[in-house]
Structure to design on (944 residues):
């Protein structure tokens, strides 16, 4: 199997790796970099549990992304949102709106929310629901997740 | 209504932060030094076959492979992944015919996905490559996908223990004539003015919890099997693993990891037996087994699908005269919950309405599909599809309003619930129906949608339900809790209850803090450690708040009593004259002469002897509260679900526009968690009504074992939702609480289907009511 040398910037830190070209970003994050917060939910790009964010705004599915194609990429995972122990507004909203039940979809949901609000700071409810279609939650019926994103949107709007 | 300090508050969930930051550790996230990977090799090409040749020698040679295991390399002892067998006395188990017909690696493959071998390797890739090198030959056998097929006299027998492939029917020794209910429904039916008779089909739905199954097992240097699992029932798994491998329970430790959703899908065991067997083959090495998502539909347990015959007879004024019902389900390949759902499906029917006579029969037959197990509401969703639609059909025929009829004829306080002889201690269903009807605009919409033309037709429907809070008296209900009081008057509550994401830990902690009179930060829950905790069934039958919470309350009361007794001695007062405020105890009316609880607990631990006098200060002993709590009842919750749909009569598509769930919760210990249960259950209920089913080809191979093709309602499909918690405290539940976990999945299927009926005038007897089925029905029956 061919390998490729890449540098990934994950949550602000640089990692130099030599990866087999068939290795997914999900495998690299979880197994090579020891970052298990990005989840395996289906491995086929259907559930969104592996969602991470590139350059602060573009959401991608790590299970369908070949790590070898991500040389130089700036990736944020769920573990990279806290700053000095302070949660970001989306994380705060997920807590205050009780949008977490089993939590397995949560890292992907939170990262997708980051992307939604980065691209569209004041989404309508319909826009939020459309954007979330790639992230499956079986616990919440999406009700409080949508409420959390709306709350985060308001909180972030009021700080700028 | 609350003089309660903590119960009822909308506090953040105790586990929310770790799940949001991604620091919560699920089983698949575990990583241990030198960890190996176990692969369970499955038969994927046949749903029914004998293994005629199994050669693992080439697989063993693959670089990185440590061990290969065939049927003869592991215990041949049978087991049952379900847990009902542990929850009834042995004689009852015998009567019911509970059996242990599962083995680790099958030689008689009974479903696609049945395990035939195991591979342990240094990497997942090596294990996969080795799996490809396994030489296996099969003798295919006929495939049975329905009870009708497998019950035929010439059918291949799944097990000699179950002739005719009937895994279970209600036994005549416990249910005369195999009937559960009351009266002679056949005879009484003759007094009916109107009879509605149909056979409904309810589908094989999958829990689709977001966390795929994953386990780690490890035999340590004290020869203990350690197993990390997110089973809903760690203490029962503890018992079952010990029994399977014939070890004392002290030689098995279950570490429960965070449960990434359950819904019954991890009730009991799934992959723990194979994972532990693999670890036993390589003692001193950790072995991780991770299921692929695609394996979920074929190698773990689903809802019981089947045919639900329902015949109801009524007088012209709507009086319910008699009901004869029979649910025959397709068991799948193994017994698991054979005696469970076949019974409960009828019990929810029995608990609902005041029929003059009610006769229910339930049975289940083996089929060549993944075994059925437990899925949220355990037969109640199936009952909703049949019972609620039959009632509505009667209402149309007799010109009665479905809400009014239900208000008049539902059972209530003092009536027999799902378990005859156990009467309802509380019932707020009238208020649920009233508030729910108002919230959806029932009266106006029923008028508005009465005579529609046009391509898009709307309708509103209602469905009610009764469920349970714990499974006594049919099943054991027991939770043991220890409350260890630290010297600084903080409490460690030690138990084996599970939180599947429901908010149970938050609720149990709130109950503990409320009962002790401590702050939330002064209470900690220790869970998921089978060494530390006493017995608990685990999460099923919606028992955690009611039974687990009842146990927590009792254990905390025990601890509090000990504290008060010591305070009484210290204050030289009568314990009945004491009260507590802000963790200080004093004689009522004399708050200035208080003793701090912390003084009592500290002196209990640090009880020094004065060397000069030989005397001690304070009363010695670390305080430990304890309760081995057996639930005294099962206080069923009720609920009314309303749905408004829009049906496109040209495409058959159904959009659920709006829904209401008005739920008789008793007391919402943690309201956001109760709301969350209603919200999530609605998604699953709509899915069952409209789109969810595992499909098979004629060879029994699953056609849609992926999220690509097993469709569930997504965020843009979910309707506007009004979530009403009706609080009418139950006299028995802790702080008046009844259960929340399953009930709200029982009635959405009936509500959605009844709404479709209202929209197009057709009763959809087959769920899911897909666009194809709706168009077919429109074609066959026409639209009025």
């Amino acid at each position: 199997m061919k390998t490729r040398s890449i540098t990934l910037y994950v949550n602000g830190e640089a990692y130099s790796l030599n990866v087999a070209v068939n290795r997914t970003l999900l495998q690299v994050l979880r197994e090579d970099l020891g970052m298990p917060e990005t989840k395996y939910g289906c491995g086929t790009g259907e559930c969104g549990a592996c969602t991470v964010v590139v350059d602060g705004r573009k959401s991608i599915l790590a299970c369908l992304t070949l790590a070898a194609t991500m040389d130089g990429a700036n990736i944020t995972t769920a573990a990279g949102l806290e700053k000095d122990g302070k949660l970001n507004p989306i994380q705060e909203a997920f807590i205050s709106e009780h949008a977490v039940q089993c939590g397995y979809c949560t890292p992907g949901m939170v990262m997708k929310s980051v992307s939604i609000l980065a691209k569209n700071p004041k989404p309508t409810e319909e826009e939020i629901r459309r954007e979330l279609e790639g992230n499956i939650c079986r616990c919440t019926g999406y009700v409080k997740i949508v409420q959390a994103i709306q709350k985060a949107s308001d909180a972030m709007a009021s700080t700028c | 209504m609350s003089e309660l300090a903590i119960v009822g508050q909308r506090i953040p969930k105790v586990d929310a932060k770790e799940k949001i930051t991604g620091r919560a550790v699920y089983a698949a996230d575990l990583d241990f030094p030198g960890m190996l990977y176990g692969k369970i090799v499955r038969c994927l090409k046949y749903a029914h076959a004998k293994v005629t040749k199994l050669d693992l020698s080439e697989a063993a040679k693959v670089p990185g492979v440590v061990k290969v295991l065939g049927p003869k390399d592991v215990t041949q002892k049978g087991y049952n992944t379900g847990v009902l067998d542990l929850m009834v006395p042995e004689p009852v188990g015998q009567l019911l015919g509970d059996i242990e017909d599962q083995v680790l690696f099958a030689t008689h493959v009974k479903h696609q996905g049945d395990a035939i071998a195991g591979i342990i390797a240094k990497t997942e890739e090596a294990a996969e490559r080795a799996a490809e090198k396994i030489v296996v030959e099969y003798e295919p056998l006929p495939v049975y996908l329905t009870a009708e097929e497998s019950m035929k006299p010439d059918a291949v027998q799944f097990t000699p223990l179950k002739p005719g492939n009937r895994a279970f029917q209600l036994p005549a020794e416990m249910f005369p004539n195999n009937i559960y209910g009351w009266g002679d429904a056949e005879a009484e039916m003759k007094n009916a003015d109107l009879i509605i008779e149909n056979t409904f089909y309810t589908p094989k739905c999958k829990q689709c919890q977001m966390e795929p199954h994953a386990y780690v097992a490890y035999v340590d240097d004290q020869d203990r099997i350690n197993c990390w699992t997110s089973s809903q029932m760690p203490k029962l798994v503890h018992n079952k693993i010990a029994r399977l491998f014939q070890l004392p329970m002290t030689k098995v430790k279950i570490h429960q990891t965070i449960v990434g959703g359950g819904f019954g899908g991890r009730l009991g065991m799934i992959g723990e037996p194979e994972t532990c067997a693999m670890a036993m083959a390589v003692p001193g090495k950790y072995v991780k087994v991770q299921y692929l998502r695609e394996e979920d539909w074929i190698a773990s347990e689903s809802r019981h699908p089947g045919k639900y015959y329902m015949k109801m007879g009524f007088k012209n004024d709507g009086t319910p005269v008699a009901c004869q019902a029979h649910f025959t389900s397709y068991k799948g390949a193994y017994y698991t919950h054979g005696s469970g759902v076949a019974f409960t499906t009828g019990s929810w029917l029995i608990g609902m309405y005041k029929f003059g006579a009610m006769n229910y029969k339930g049975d289940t037959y083996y089929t060549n599909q993944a075994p059925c197990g437990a899925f949220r509401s355990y037969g109640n969703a199936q009952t909703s599809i049949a019972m609620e639609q039959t009632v509505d059909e009667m209402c149309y025929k007799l010109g009665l309003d479905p809400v009014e009829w239900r208000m008049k004829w539902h059972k209530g306080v003092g009536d027999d619930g799902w378990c005859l002889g156990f009467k309802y201690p509380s019932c707020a269903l009238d208020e649920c129906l009233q508030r729910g009807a108002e919230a959806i605009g029932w009266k106006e919409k029923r008028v508005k949608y009465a005579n529609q033309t046009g391509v898009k037709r709307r309708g509103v429907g209602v469905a009610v339900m009764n469920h349970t809070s714990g499974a006594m008296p049919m099943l054991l209900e027991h939770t043991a809790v220890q409350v260890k009081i630290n010297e600084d008057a903080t409490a460690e509550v030690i138990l084996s209850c599970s939180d599947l994401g429901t908010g149970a830990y938050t609720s149990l902690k709130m109950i503990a803090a409320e009962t002790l009179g401590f702050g939330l930060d002064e209470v900690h829950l220790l869970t998921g450690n089978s060494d530390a905790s006493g017995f608990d069934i685990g999460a099923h039958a919606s028992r955690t708040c009611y039974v687990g919470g009842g146990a927590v309350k009792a254990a905390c009361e025990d601890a509090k009593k000990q504290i008060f007794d010591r305070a009484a001695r210290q204050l030289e007062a009568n314990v009945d004259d004491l009260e507590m405020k802000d963790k200080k105890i004093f004689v009522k009316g004399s708050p200035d002469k208080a003793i701090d609880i912390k003084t009592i607990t500290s002196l209990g631990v640090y009880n020094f002897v004065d060397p000069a006098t030989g005397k001690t200060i304070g009363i010695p002993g670390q305080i430990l509260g304890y309760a081995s709590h057996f639930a005294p009842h099962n206080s069923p919750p009720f609920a009314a679900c309303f749905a408004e749909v829009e049906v496109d009569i040209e495409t058959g598509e159904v959009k659920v526009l709006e829904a209401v769930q008005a739920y008789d919760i008793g007391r919402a210990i943690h309201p956001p968690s109760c709301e969350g249960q209603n919200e999530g259950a609605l998604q699953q209920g709509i899915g069952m009504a409209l789109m969810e089913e595992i499909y098979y080809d004629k060879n029994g191979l699953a056609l849609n074992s992926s999220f690509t093709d097993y469709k569930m309602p997504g965020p843009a499909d979910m309707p506007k939702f009004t979530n009403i918690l009706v609080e009418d405290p139950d006299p028995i539940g802790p702080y008046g609480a009844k259960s929340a976990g399953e009930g709200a999945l029982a009635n959405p299927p009936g509500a959605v289907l009844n709404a479709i009926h209202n929209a197009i005038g057709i009763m959809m007897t087959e769920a899911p009511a897909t666009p194809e089925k709706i168009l077919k029905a429109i074609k066959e029956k026409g639209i009025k």
The longest strand of chain B covers residues 320-332.
